[in-house]
Amino acid sequence: MSQLLLFPEENQPESLEPWKIDSQEKLPAAQVVFTEGVPGFFDYIIPPMFREIISPGCRVEVPLGKNNRPCTAYCVGIHQVSQNERKWKSILRILDNHTLISPNMLRLTQWIAQNYLCPWGQVLQTVLPAGVREQAGTRMATFMTLSPSGKEAVRLYNTTEKIKLTPVQLRILQTLQNAPAHGIPSTELAQRAKSSQGPIKLLRERGFIISTKERILNPTEDDFFSPVTPSEDRSLNTYQKNALEILSSLLDTRHTPPTFCLPEVGATNVALLHGVTGSGKTEVYIQIIREVLRRGKQAIVLVPEISLTPQTVRRFRSRFTSVAVLHSHLTDAQRHHEWLRIMRGDVEVIVGARSAIFAPTPKLGIIIIDEEHESSFKQETAPRYHARDVAICRGVMENALVILGSATPCLESWHHASEGKYCLINMPRRVMNRPLPEVQTVDLRVRDPKETFHSLGRKMHFALRNCLEEGHQAILLLNRRGYSTHIQCPACGTVITCPHCDISLTHHRFQNLAICHHCDFQQKAPEFCPQCKSPRIRYSGIGTQKLEQEVCARFPQARILRMDTDSMQQRGAHEQALSRFRNGEIDILLGTQMIAKGLDFPNVTLVGVINADTALHLPDFRASERTFHLITQVAGRTGRGEKGGQVLVQTFQPENPIIQFSCQHDYNAFVSHELPIRKKWNYPPFSALARIVVKGKSLELTEKTAEEIVKNIHSHVKFLDINARILGPVPCPVPKLKDLYRFHIQIHAASREKLRDTLKLVQDTQKTPDQIQWIIDMDPISML
């Protein structure tokens, strides 16, 4: 990638002999990147009328191609080009009246483009929300100001030199005389001067008033959440105080190195806060943020799930006067409004999901990633960045402290901390020395032969009954949506599958539909087998809808709420659901993994895991880690109050070591078990990993293209002499999605930089048929 000139004064050309000046005359040019279609950099001459207002980070409209089609591009640099080098095209217009992307954000997005092998323009388009690009929630308004002749008219009216002005016209001019320098809207002027638009129009025609059009924000509430009661800082226990002292010292000792290469950024920039569930990590976050704010800086807090945002925001809003929120459930106008508040520096704390890492903070001092192990911090579409690594990179660039917090850190973060690359801080006790909940396994293999199979075993049923009788609340986790997860004919064995994907359909009983959870294909639930016409169609497997129905039937007096993707589609549904549960309006909260992390409800005394095996044996090297995270995290939702708590884990494999470690809350034992396996097979954190997925409508052509890509990789690996292992191509675990056959390739290498550079060469040299799509995923999280 060529050297970019972020500031016009950098890298000025050397002086030339006089006889060369005419032929080598330099012109100012903007270096731009396009958001799609055309990779690389392009230079466009900056016309004189734009030279004072253009800057790197703004959007421009430029002609592209032989037909000079107007296209939007981002200016990423300004430099000089030789006038006679070629016939240059010029910028058509500047689209933004102020820079939307700061120099720091430009550098960060360039790093993302290089690190994740994605076009820079596509990264910039991702960073800048659509609501900001389209100026959502704004309108054009006409502003009125006094012209020099208008000022003179007011002055002369008060002297012996009379000027013809009616009393209404005089009031209008006097109102403008006392107005702000940028003027006031014409409607407001009419109201203040108690006038109609007629006299204002006459004064404009006489040249006493100047009118200009500007885009302004529509009136909106500054806060999109219900009011909260302010609260004071809580007293800290010994472990919290120790954590706060270490983090405060890091604020003083961190530094920005001249270069960096993740994760070797130094322990003074990144801290891993490993605290058991209920250890009070949020209180430590709040008090270290308060210290950052005292230094005149801002804070970004990232949370993994949209369901966490309302509760997290409420906590921070009760402690800080100005909190902004950025997540996908905001309207475009709300997001634009929050973005402008942040960019102006009016906000102290920004809370949000993955994309909030790009919040335009002018004075960033700290970035906190809560539940840093969560896979939702990795974007699965281009640019396929990981918010954790982007946060570390941004922290280095802007000299900000980065805190990674979790009760179950991902193995990569733990490994880096163990090697001293991150500062490791342990909080092994819950607040007020409350014990971790007792966790018991329920062996689903041991059942009474006469007992009909149900979602809730006998032990779970009686535990729920006791919990409700005592007036407590319960959480039930089942990480499967729908009613029945499998539809099959017992006569001929036919499985009802999606016609577009190689995956079975899920029965949603309330709509009586069979739905594909990958492509959203829907059909009416079959009453007979489509092959043999047998009416004995069988619906098996348990989803959250069936669990809800069973719990309602067993406990008809209980107030039950289901939280999953299907039931939480409306804007604000998450906040309303959690608010009802917090207020005691719900007795049993059941749902998928969105209820498993970060929620803090002291009245919850029972947590039930309906089936702990659902993800344990997926063809993914992180399957064990995800299962451990999920069970440990959901177990931590109970026992947070004085009433204590109990956890029941239903499983067909109670002797599995991952299940055992989860039930014992033993993260260190899990690490000691899992890391040697990763090391043996050379998986992260002991190697860099990239995944290539090749997709196409033709099975044969897709497989052939994947094989050609592997040959290309082998040739570049051999040429660059890097230590790498290449696996594949083989069909993906889900071999067909949305009518496209899928093959994948895994590449392991000792050096991430060499692996990235190798794949960049493959990306630049590989030629594929137009009907074939292929992507490169650096540091993949999903292997399906």
Summarize this, please?
The chain is an alpha/beta fold and 784 residues long.
Key words describing this protein structure:
disordered N terminus, alpha/beta, 784 residues, globular, 23% strand, 31% helix, seven-stranded parallel β-sheet, 22 helices, six-stranded parallel β-sheet
Number of helices: 22
Uncertain runs: 1-23, 256-267
Strand content range: 15-25%
- Biggest sheet, open or closed, and with what strands and sense? 7 strands, parallel
Overall number of strands: 30
Strand order of the largest sheet: 11-12-10-13-14-9-15
N- to C-terminal distance: 32 Å
Structural class: alpha/beta
Helix content: 25-40%
Radius of gyration: 31 Å
Could you explain how this protein is built, in words?
There is one protein chain. With 784 residues, the protein is of the alpha/beta class. It is 31% helix and 23% strand. The strands form seven sheets. The chain has a seven-stranded parallel sheet with strand order 11-12-10-13-14-9-15, sandwiched between helices. Helix 12 links the parallel strand 11 (323-326) and strand 12 (349-352). Helix 2 packs across helix 13 (387-397) and helix 9 runs parallel beside helix 10 (281-294). It is globular, with a radius of gyration of 31 Å. It starts with 17 loop residues before the first helix and ends in a 6-residue tail after the last strand.
